[in-house]
Each structure stands twice: as C-alpha cells, then as structure tokens.
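ok so I'm stuck.
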Amino acid sequence: MSWIAWAMLSAVFAAATALLAKLGVAGVDPNLATAVRTTVVVLFAWVIAISFGAHDGLAHIERRSWIFLGLSGFATGLSWICYFRALSLGQASKVAPIDKLSVVFVILLAWPLLGERITLMKAAGGALITAGAIVLAFA
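replied:
not stuck anymore, here's the structure
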C-alpha cells in the first residue's frame, strides 16, 4: 500500500479513537483513562513488532534514535493526557478538529527542524485547516 492509503487508514482509526475515547472517558478520570489506553497501545504495539520480527532490530537502534523516540513517546503521552482531558470536558466534534491543528504545527516546525519547504500549497492547506478547526470548534 502507498503512504496515502496508510495515512487514510490512520485518519479512520484516529476518528474511531476520538469517538471511542469520548464514550470511554465518561465517568472515568481522564488520567486513568489515558493510562488504560496507553497500556493497550503498548501491548498491541509489542504484539505487532514481535509478530513481524521487528523486535530483532532492538539491539541495533542507535543512541540518537533512542533519544528522539523517547522524546516522541514523552510528547505522545503529554498529547494523550491533554486530549483525554479535553474530551472529558468538551464535545468530541469540537475537540478533534482543534487536535488536528497539529498538522499546522508540523507544517510550521518541519521547516526549521527538518528543512522542509513551506510552499504556497502547504501554506494554503494549513490556513484552511486552521479555519476549519476554528469554524468547527465554535459551531
């Protein structure tokens, strides 16, 4: 499958995540809900890695990658904690679009951090995502 197909599947599962999390967080402390979800993700990820034999490469991960993967995990944890708190307080149809502003932040930060160019199309897309998030959040 192409990267587009995988990205579309990611979007479908992210939508399912928002809806299922909103249902699951009802009456549950958001931090506890995040811990439960994270436990499931960790177990699932290891089952997939082991099933495909990817765990064999664990010893070959370089120090730099460990650092960035660790920081990424930390950022993911913070994101999920904030996301579940937002879901516990607000409507999923309003929280999810604001969360997707991460796309705009990636566009902006990929330029200085990764050397990616901000083209007219990327800027326009980012502006449309921002406008859409604002419209949906305040609808």
